[in-house]
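re: that complex we talked abt at group meeting.

here r the seqs, copy pasted straight from the sheet so there may be weird spacing, ignore it
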Amino acid sequence: MSNLEQTLSIIKPDAVERNLENEIKEMFKSKGFSILKEKKIQIEKSEAEKFYKVHETKPFYNDLCAYLSSGPIVVMVLEKDNAVLGNRELMGATNPEDAEEGTIRKKYGISIDKNSVHGSDSVENAKIEIDFFFKD
Ligand code: IDP
Ligand code: MG
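got the structure back, here u go
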């Protein structure tokens, strides 16, 4: 049975800066994801703080928000069957050192904070995050 889902992906500043946008998009497409929407933007720190609000009590919250707003990012809506989990699998572990071969973070991630991509962690959060960037 099919279970078409949408999820939010972000190519983070470290990857945009290294011109990895096309390589990363090709990895999504080769795994069967359709890119329904995309835009390259730079956000304010205050917007990053809203986006990462679930992490506000974490010691790394301030650095994380400063980082996400430090340069251009590419935000995308990805679609395929079971897209949320499929994207998490393709991204790999949060810490690139722990990420499996063949994942985006293994291939391109520099460190736990510069790990090249973001992906929604549940269908519910995917809806919230897609609205955050694409509702106008
Ligand atoms: P995820 O991006 O794999 O979903 P989360 O736990 O949601 O990971 O954390 C959000 C982001 O915060 C991570 O992608 C990473 O950039 C950063 N982060 C998570 N844990 C740490 C940490 O221990 N130190 C520094 N940055 C962290
Ligand atoms: Mg997360």
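couple things i noticed - The pocket of magnesium ion (ligand 2) is lined by residues 121 (CB under 6 Å). The two ends are 33 Å apart (CA to CA).
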